[in-house]
Amino acid sequence: LAEDGGAPAAGSDEEEPAAKRVRHNPGPKRKVALLVAYNGAAYQGLQRNPNAKTIEDVLEAAMHAAGAISDDNVGTLQKISWSKAGRTDKGVHAAGQLISCKLIVQPAGGGGNV
Length: 114
What we know:
Blueprint: E1 29-38, H1 55-65, E2 83-84, E3 94-104
Antiparallel strand pairs: 1-3, 2-3
């Protein structure tokens, strides 16, 4: 901490308490339906499993990278109301898998659609 007991000194390894962090508003979320198809040969199925490469993990990472899932919500699919109409097992392909979730479709600041 700074010598006056205030905020951490510049370059300090200490982090601010969660209550003092400023939250970034990435923009409004909308309920969407995703119709996805995939070759599941290299995956352990659709549903997320610890220590396994799954379709859900890949989809979430791609949507986060595109700005459709905020940093605050990545890692916990329940936070974006993730719901799937079915699932596949290891190595199984899908031609029309339906997933619904709440995504950021227009980032704050009007930077276009995701």
